[in-house]
């Protein structure tokens, strides 16, 4: 029902925009009223301050993280090859380095994301914390927390190879879920992440590359597309 | 038929129209969230909400979160119909005036 009203309002407003330039002020007043209604509906039901630059910065963090992880992995395998024997201590060291890298990347990506979104909200004079923020975060966090617990369980059972696909799938589902309360385009990013995660299941040893594409490249492409669409000077809004 | 006749007097106030717009797309909204979205003062919003309630366009639910009162508002079927009618009337006004 609400979607239909958005659509109808958009249609009316677009169709009458040109006409209004040449007609009387009363018309303008009514059109202004319709525009206001549409704006209030949008603002009150969706968190619209999510910035494309947040996606770009998160993607860059992910790429740096993936590169670092590759460095650790290559070093580990080279050492194994040179000594010829498997070492528990080396493996524990690698695991530690990877987990620390992942945590640092996550904190950097989230802070960068928050910064650009906060900046956009401030520029548009919108509150950063309101009912739409709570809705989007809650709906993002439900699948994300489930995914986090699931991945922790996989690590606990020494099924490391499945961690990357699980992260991608749960993250994608979280985005699909959250997209109802923010930019609708986020849904497509979510679907792509899910598909990538599933593809990764059939190429298990390539987890790091799938991660770099899913969390790095896709975020950057999505972020640039959203920035061009909504934030660049002269774009709509 | 006079198109102006279809414009709903109750929605002449921008604040009342704003409240209806918010409630059209959100199931239940509490007083503070409405106040924040519409950028109005307590007293002003309360009196407009009363008018809407008296006309049967919105329902009021009084609840508690701990000891604090938490009043939420939702649109009624009659309110939805009236709001849609008002939108149609606005649209007609724009289309048929010269």
TrEMBL record, chain A:
Keywords noted in UniProt: Membrane, Transmembrane, Transmembrane helix
TM helices/strands, residue ranges: 47-76, 96-116, 136-156, 162-179, 186-203, 209-228
Name of the protein in question: Uncharacterized protein
Species the sequence originates in: Chitinophaga eiseniae
TrEMBL record, chain B:
Name the UniProt record assigns to this protein: Winged helix DNA-binding domain-containing protein
GO BP term, example: regulation of DNA-templated transcription
Domain Winged helix DNA-binding stretches: 15-94
Keywords tagged on the record: DNA-binding
GO molecular function terms listed in the Swiss-Prot or TrEMBL record: DNA binding
Highest taxon in the source lineage: Bacteria
Matches recorded under InterPro entries: ArsR-like_HTH, WH-like_DNA-bd_sf, WH_DNA-bd_dom, WH_DNA-bd_sf
